[in-house]
Amino acid sequence: MANHVRDDDKHGSAARSNADRDQADRRYSAALVALDASAEPSPVVARAAAAAAADIVRLNDAWQHAGKPQGPIARLFTELGRLLPWRRRRLLGAMVAAINRNTETTRALIDTTQHFQSHVIWYAQTVAALAASARRGDDNPESVQALHRAIHAIGTDWLKHWETLAARDARSDARMAALTKAYDELRDVANLAQQSTLSLKRVVEQSAQPATRSATGPAEAPAAGPQAPDPNAFKYVGFEDRFRGSREEIRQRLLPYLPLFAGATNVVDIGCGRGELLDLFREQGAGARGIDINDEMVDTCRSRGLQADRADALGFLLAQPDNSLGGVVAIQVVEHLEPGYLMQLIETAHHKLAPGAPLVLETINAACWAAFFDSYIRDFTHAHAIHPDTLKYLVQASGFGSTELRFLAPIDEYDKLPTVKMPETPGVADQTTIDLVETVNAHADRLNKQLFTFRDFAVVARK
Amino acid sequence: MRLAWFSPWPPQRSGIAGRSAELVQRLAARGHAIDVFVDASRVRPATASLAPPDAGGVRVLSAHDFVWRQARHPYDLPVYQIGNSHLHRFIWPYLFRYPGLAVLHDARLHHARAEALLSADRADDYRAEFAWSHPDAPPDAAELAVHRVESSLFYHWPMLRGVIESARLVGAHSRGVAAMIARDWPDRPVEYIALGEGRADYDIDTARRHFRALHGIAEAALVVGVHGGLTADKRVTDILRAFASQRAWIPHARLLLVGGADPWLELDAEIAALGLASAVCRVPSADDEVFDQSIAASDVTLNLRWPTALETSGPWVRSLALGRPTVVIDVAHHAHVPALDPRTWRRHEPVADLDPGADARAVTVALDIRDLNHSLRLAMRRLGTDAALRHRLGAEARAWWEREHTVERMTLDYERAMARAVAEPSPAPSWPAHLRPDPSAHARDLLDPQSWDAAAIGARLGFLGT
């Protein structure tokens, strides 16, 4: 196709076609003039022919030196006269001159003929070129060529605008990404500033009215006591905002627990944090309250109308009547606790839960390499990593009859170690290669089972 | 790794051929065994043993030998150098049938695909491939090419789908093109592979003096250089006119035009008409050495090709390597390159990042194609009179080249991409019929006595130019 050549408007196909036709026309005219000229009588040949004719006359004169002989005697004397030396030389000289002249004439004729032939060939070629350009012209009349030029011009103009906008769009995308990242960082800083302000406000208020909190605090939270608020509590809220995940993400992860608490009342969410699970309990109609030792978390829950108190978990449970609780749940809490405290907490939960009521203890699966390095060591408040079997044993040893381990949040297949795929065609790989691939794949499988399994696990038990 | 390397190759006059040869030698030096498959009608192949290539070896073979060599000793990976030119035409049949690493030097392939099909009188196949490549485009748009209408509209329909969906992995020589492919084909793997070109250690001052002395250019003259084939889409006419208009401000300037000129430009007549005969220096032919010398001799280089096939310009990269301030057209696939707009001498709006100091770290000057003539005059005048700006842009250009465009970087990028391509599964595209022909159909047709006249056989052999 012609249009594989990049070009601009000025040199479009129509312009080239016109130029081609003009050139063919000029060449045809030139060839025709040359052909006409070559068909004219050649003066060289004419001169040579005249000279040759004169030579022939001289030759005839030399041959017929005594005129045309009449009778046998006259012919005999004429023949004898031709033998005379001076006459013989004259005759031979005239003959040689005539032959030479004739050769020149023949050469001039040949040259002229070749000249003419070459002009005929030239002419024929230009006729062919002219005919071809005329055919192209027939296929591509002026109006069509104008249309082609217009299409090309419109396409070029449109492309200029399109490409300019595309460049602007690409930069806009990059700027939007930069702005989004900056916004996220700014939001974290703003949250920290807000929490810091609230914390300072509380300290100021409590300094002015030290009895206010105990007077207005919930009677159901005796273990909380009149403890001084932690001025750094807001930092942990900010930490959760940045690293734990959005509220919506946490809600989605907690949804599978809801069926365990269907119809339950008086459920306690230990370490309720920002209240995602309390939200779900409220939506489900389950009666639940949250406790947390972080004032900022408690305030966050209360600001959304959730029932939450600042309280120590073990103190709170000890204050509840035996067999009174409809469920106890602690999401991402046990890894923050010392061993002795944890064992006492589980045992106390068993005492306070109603028969058949569920206990859920969810924590990071530190037996998974990715979870340990991605999540566990990121939170500086984590005290002890707990193996799934250990936590299950502690729950069983505290008197819970029905106990199961649930593994949650599987590692994405994309993040696991890949295995090598063997060609399906038999005979492509030799046995050494097959052995090597199988060994590598076995190692990958083993490592995947050890290191890239599930990020979290939960012990789910019923009293 | 045993590689089957499909590419234009020296002595073909193509930037890709030269760079490909340099890259292959570097990969071989790193232990790869490489058979280079070329168009035997344009490049004389070597004769080689039936055995596979040795590690570190390079053999140049006819592309027609690939299939049986692949059947006998399969290669680890075919690598295809793809461009929007007829020089790559011989690669198509192998690209579609033997999935490998497809490296896009151009990301608009419409002209090449149309040429391959329409020059073989396969208009229906072209129409089918156009519709398959661009299902949202009106099918009648294909008639533009079928009826030989030249149009910039072809750049809007790049006909990339065949390459993207047949390759195990696509390599792109610009970050913008890689992002575009990732956006349009989210399920297909794509990698950015730096385009490495230019010299790290080059005696610029000596080359500059030598070239200027050879061509009678004074040391004090300000040289504006245009390097590479001089065609209409390099905006040479616009450059001449802008240069003529700015001589009052930069009377000591010379315009250096390096490379063969398209005769349709009537360049000499244009130069004479503008009264520039004494101010223009033309070097119609230049090998790599002279080419680099001419860049070194330039104070500013202009790379104004537009429209583009979304390539990364080799002469531009070589200019960056030699620390020259450059002027380019503002295009989307290079929007990540920090560039000044000569209308404001700030970065183009909206700026891509939030760094307020980045104007001072601009690498090039980019012109809005809609404002080409005005912007080009502004750029020439400022760069012609502001030596500090030239120096700053040149230093940033060199730093950008060291980060993005060294040959070493490209070699490592290739190795990374090749390793990933080998691990990627072969795709299973839903080809249009002409790209999945029945392999025995043509043989059966040829055995049919009714098709034994020469014209029919020739037409049937057209499938070789898939």
Explained architecture:
The complex is a heterodimer of chains A (463) and B (466). By secondary structure, chain A is of the alpha/beta class. Chain A folds into 2 domains: 2-140, Helix Hairpins, CATH 1.10.287; 239-462, Rossmann fold, CATH 3.40.50.150. Helices cover 61% and strands 9% of the residues of chain A. Chain A has helices at residues 13-39, 43-63, 71-82, 85-139, 142-208, 212-216, 233-243, 247-254, 276-284, 295-303, 313-318, 339-352, 369-376, 388-397, 431-451, and strands spanning 267-270, 288-292, 308-310, 327-331, 358-364, 402-410, 454-462. Chain A has a 7-stranded mixed sheet with strand order 3-2-1-4-5-7-6, sandwiched between helices. In chain A, β4 (327-331), α12 (339-352) and β5 form a beta-alpha-beta unit. The longest helix of chain A is centred in the middle third of the chain and has 67 residues, at 142-208. The radius of gyration of chain A is 56 Å and the shape is rod-shaped. The two termini of chain A are 83 Å apart. Residues 1-12 and 211-226 of chain A have low confidence and may be disordered. Chain B has 466 residues and is an alpha/beta fold. Chain B has 2 domains: 2-196 and 410-465, 3-Layer(aba) Sandwich (Rossmann fold); 204-405, Rossmann fold (3-Layer(aba) Sandwich). In chain B, 38% of the residues lie in helices and 14% in strands. Chain B is built from 18 helices and 15 strands. In chain B, α9 crosses α12 (288-296), α10 (236-245) packs across α14 (372-385) and α13 (314-321) packs across α15 (387-404). The longest helix of chain B has 18 residues, at 387-404. The two termini of chain B are 28 Å apart. The mean pLDDT of chain B is 92. The interface between A and B is large, with 41 and 49 residues.
